[in-house]
Amino acid sequence: MTVEIEKLVRRFGHNAALDGVSLALHPGEFAALLGPSGSGKTTLLRILAGLDFPDAGSVRIAGTDVAGVPARLRGVGVVFQHYALFRHMTIAENIAFGLRVRPRRLRPAAADIARRVATLLELVQIPDLAGRYPDQVSGGQRQRVALARALAIEPSLLLLDEPFGALDALVRKEVRRWVRGLHDRLGITSVLVTHDQDEAMELADRIAVMDRGRIVQFGTPRALLDDPQTAFVAGFIGEANRLRGEVRDGWLEMRDLPVPMVRVKGRDGPVEVFIRPADLLVAPSPRRHGCVEVALVRPETESARVVVRCGASLLDGVAPTQVGRILPGVLCDVTVRRLTVFGEDGAREDLHLVDAPGCVGAGASI
Fold first, then answer.
1. What's the CATH number of domain 3-231, 3.30.70.2750, 3.40.50.970, 3.50.50.60, 3.40.50.300?
2. Which pTM does this prediction carry?
3. 75-98 pLDDT per residue, tens
4. Under 8 Å CB-to-CB from 208, ≥6 apart: which residues?
């Protein structure tokens, strides 16, 4: 089932929660709306669900304009962060609720509802919990109940509003992988709202990155990592050190990073520089007086994640060799392998550098 959003606008007073948003989803796609608080992602989901309405623009679900269609008739299932289960109803009654409140002419027979509930309990792998109440099951089980209730109406579109936020870390990972597997089995078009990029990257086929009421980039997780279109996306997706720089006469200088100036093609003026931790290598100084101070070391399987202090900045890097010699307080050298530069005009330049040991960092190979 397709979802087509065109030039959607939603204002609250003088503030635009959505500012000309357009988006198209393929049938059976799992998409994520990812962005910081206030970016407009929940407002967009509420409009898709029929819980809010736009000031301008259109929303078409399966080719039908749903602007005047009530939420209960849209065929959209919604799962909220805090489950929104009825505490006075059993698990089975909660799942059946959406079917029982349908208008009489659309309501299935009681026997059909019971069969549907039993099937869903099996689908979400909690068949033995039918007679319990929400307070008698775990958070992960309550989330499965909320999902079963959303699926009971056989939705053509499934909306997930921060559905894992109330779960602890281990349960959250387990449930989100289960949700993706369920999506693949059912083939329902799904939209996840989240501020957690790990969730979005693991679950979604494509991610719409939102900032201040706009979609700034929509693409696969790999495309967002490898080909960010704006400085916001470069800093928001994945891990990246963000530095201020200056281009003068075609040379890039970074005041907070002790590496030589790099030749660039962009215009002169202030720029933002992004360096992934994997591209910032930290190593013991052969001269025993490096140019950065190690602030924190976190051992990993074959290397270590290292936080180094460069002037007033703390930067994330890696120590691929001689990990035992890199300790907090030790002065080390840094090498930059790759960086991305965004000019004030939004132009991006990716620089792949040639590794060179020592405090001199890397020489450009452009």
1. 3.40.50.300
2. 0.88
3. 899 998 887 899 999 999 999 998
4. 23, 31, 32, 33, 34, 215, 217, 218
